[in-house]
């Protein structure tokens, strides 16, 4: 074997950061050492791995070919190192990126369980909308994603986790709250506050009204669920969010669900990861614990 794990590590860091200087800081190496290691690897393989554009490096065709294989090699090396040091296999750092609903209502309990049962496993949690979770996985920024709805990119593997549904809701003082259900004409005339474009919740909502409601009166768009709920509580707006997001407020009477039998807003939360990432015991552990959590939630209902 002509190349070294150090060279593969340098390649992976430069590919992630698109910068020799940034990779040098991450690896606690000098820039010249990073450049030398990268150059040696390209010479050994006989292929250019990056396209150099000023100070920015982007992966070439061969770099994109090598990237998933390098990631698998580094993961396997980490598992070997853990085994040689007689450490438990379920240990190390894991990058999880979740959409907002799961991050707020499910992930805290999941992390608490893992901290108790697998104390050597550390989860680095990022919260993004569904579109950004997908982009981050494709750019190797995360090891596992949790999204709302569908992913159509064949480079990512998707497995359903837990079912949920969207609801339309208002303040108890909103004029629509007195009706048994909200008509399509009422929904057209209402002032809406909604999640931003790119959010999985927004995609599902727009899919539900497509072909049914011609034009929606959207006054504001926000990333933050808490902002949407606060605006609706003031009385003049209505919104649509996952039931998990409004469950507590509905129970204590701060918000009311407006029945909309014309709209099908069933959805599910899913795990996604790169299809070429190979086996990963840390990912398997987190998914197993998440499924156990969802089963316990169903039993409590």
How are the secondary structure elements laid out?
Elements: H1 5-17, H2 20-27, H3 31-45, E1 50-53, E2 56-59, H4 61-84, E3 92-98, H5 100-105, H6 107-117, E4 121-127, H7 130-138, E5 144-148, E6 156-170, H8 184-189, E7 192-195, H9 200-209, E8 218-222, H10 225-233, E9 239-242, H11 243-251, E10 256-258, E11 266-274, H12 281-300
Morphology: elongated
Number of strands: 11
Strand content: 15-25%
Helix tally equals 12
- Quote the average pLDDT: 88
* Share in helix: 40-55%
> What would you report as the Rg, rounded to the nearest angstrom?
23 Å
Distance between the termini: 57 Å
Task: Kindly give the count of domains.
Answer: 2
SSE order, one letter for each helix or strand:
HHHEEHEHHEHEEHEHEHEHEEH
Q: If classified by CATH, what would the architecture of the largest domain be?
A: 3-Layer(aba) Sandwich
- Given as residue ranges, the uncertain stretches (5+ residues, pLDDT < 50) are none
Please describe the biggest sheet, giving its number of strands, its sense, and whether it closes into a barrel.
Answer: 7 strands, mixed
Remind me, CATH topology of the largest domain? Answer: D-Maltodextrin-Binding Protein, domain 2
Name the CATH class of the largest domain. Answer: Alpha Beta
- Helix vs. strand class: alpha/beta
Family: Belongs to the LysR transcriptional regulatory family.
GO molecular function: DNA-binding transcription factor activity; transcription cis-regulatory region binding
InterPro entries: LysR_HTH_N (IPR000847), LysR_subst-bd (IPR005119), WH-like_DNA-bd_sf (IPR036388), WH_DNA-bd_sf (IPR036390)
Domain HTH lysR-type: 1-60
């Amino acid at each position: 074997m002509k190349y070294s794990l150090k060279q593969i590590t340098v390649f992976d860091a430069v590919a992630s950061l698109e910068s020799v200087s940034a990779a040098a800081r991450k690896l606690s190496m000098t820039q010249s050492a990073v450049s030398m290691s990268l150059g040696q690897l390209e010479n050994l393989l006989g292929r250019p791995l990056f396209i150099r554009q000023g100070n920015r490096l982007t992966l070439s065709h061969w770099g994109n070919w090598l990237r998933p294989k390098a990631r698998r090699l580094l993961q396997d090396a980490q598992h070997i190192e853990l085994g040689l040091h007689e450490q438990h296999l379920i240990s190390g750092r894991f990058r999880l990126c979740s959409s907002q609903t799961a991050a707020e209502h499910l992930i805290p309990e999941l992390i608490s369980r893992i901290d108790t049962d697998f104390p050597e496993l550390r989860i680095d949690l990022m919260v993004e909308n569904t579109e950004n979770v997908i982009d981050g996985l494709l750019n190797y920024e995360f090891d596992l994603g949790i999204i709302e709805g569908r992913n159509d990119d064949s480079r990512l593997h998707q497995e359903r986790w837990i079912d949920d549904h969207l609801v339309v809701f208002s303040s108890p003082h909103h004029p629509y709250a007195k009706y048994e259900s909200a008509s399509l004409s009422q929904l057209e005339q209402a002032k809406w506050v909604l999640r931003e474009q790119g959010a999985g919740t927004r995609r599902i909502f727009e899919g539900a009204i497509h072909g049914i409601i011609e034009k929606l009166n959207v006054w504001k768009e926000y990333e933050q669920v808490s902002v949407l709920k606060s605006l609706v509580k003031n009385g003049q707006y209505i919104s649509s969010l996952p039931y998990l997001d409004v469950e507590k407020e509905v129970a204590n009477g701060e918000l009311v669900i407006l029945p909309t039998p014309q709209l099908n807003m069933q959805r599910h939360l899913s795990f996604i990861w790169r299809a070429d990432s190979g086996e990963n015991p840390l990912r398997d552990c987190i998914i197993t614990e998440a499924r156990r959590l969802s089963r316990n939630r169903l039993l409590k209902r």
